[in-house]
Amino acid sequence: MGFFNNDLNKTAIAMGKVIKLLDDVQGKLSWGNDLYEQKEALYMIAYVCRVGILDRIESNNWFMTGPISIPSGFFKFKKVTIAEGLMQTVIRLKGISRNEEFLEKNVDEILERKQFFYEYVSIFTEEQMRQLNKSI
Q1: CA-to-CA distance for 82 and 90, rounded, in angstroms?
Q2: Does the pLDDT at position 2 exceed 70?
Q3: Cα separation of 105 and 134, whole Å?
């Protein structure tokens, strides 16, 4: 899990993107927007968490206590453990979606690669999926 580990760097970048996206969603919610209005954003964030974070952690068998440097601004990084990164991304997403039963179920299914994950992925064209996966 060295400095030049490409999967680790991609995971850190995905975590940074998810944190920013969650900040945006929570900002909209604090201005009175309905949680259900944010469902598409939450589904996209769940997809990025599954493919960009969880799949990489699982395929590399990283220890949860291992370090990861999450981008937090222009040339700024926050060094945390992988477990702390998961708390700031996946667990935070689950906490937000918990307030609406239907969204919670769908977000959980995306995160767990269950039926709704495949239904969600099916709405994208091959080119859209290629571009999305390239960005994470």
Answers
A1: 11
A2: no
A3: 27
